[in-house]
Design brief:
Layout (H helix, E strand, L loop, with lengths): L4 H18 L7 H24 L24 H17 L5 H26 L1 H8 L4
Helix pairs in contact: 2-3, 3-4, 4-5
Length: about 140
């Protein structure tokens, strides 16, 4: 987790500045609180999922090993899921509902990536993956 420390610190600082810039006269609007309530835990869960995936992480769908511990014990694709939770939190925080026009296609793309990964993992791990898939969500 140490390799993520600079990223976590930078993200925290960036979001603090963003909060001060966006908030009028230091007044926190409900959308700021709701947005942050989604972004902050989603980021940490995304980072945790990435850490738990370890060397099995690849930009393209590959089947290096089947990760079934930690967040992966409940969610098959936590990196995609929490990335989209962060995105919707940012949209809410910024108060820019037009960004949903970008977010919806991004979700569709993530679902497509998840399905492609599932096919690759099923081809490599067979019944072990099918059993895992039955026990998890998304």
């Amino acid at each position: 987790m140490r390799r993520y420390t600079p990223i976590l610190i930078a993200l925290g600082i960036a979001f603090s500045f963003a909060a001060q810039i966006v908030s009028a006269n230091g007044v926190w609007r409900p959308r700021f609180v709701i947005g942050l309530a989604l972004v902050v835990p989603s980021f940490f869960l995304w980072a945790l999922a990435r850490h738990q995936l370890g060397d099995a992480f690849t930009p393209r769908a590959e089947a290096r090993r089947l990760v079934t511990h930690g967040l992966y014990a409940r969610i098959r694709h936590p990196i995609y899921f929490f990335a989209e939770c962060m995105s919707i939190g940012i949209i809410i925080f910024l108060g820019l509902p037009l960004l949903l026009l970008v977010w919806v296609p991004a979700v569709i793309w993530q679902i497509s990536r998840a399905r492609r990964e599932s096919r690759v993992l099923e081809a490599r791990f067979g019944e072990e993956y099918r059993r895992y898939r039955r026990q998890t969500w998304f």
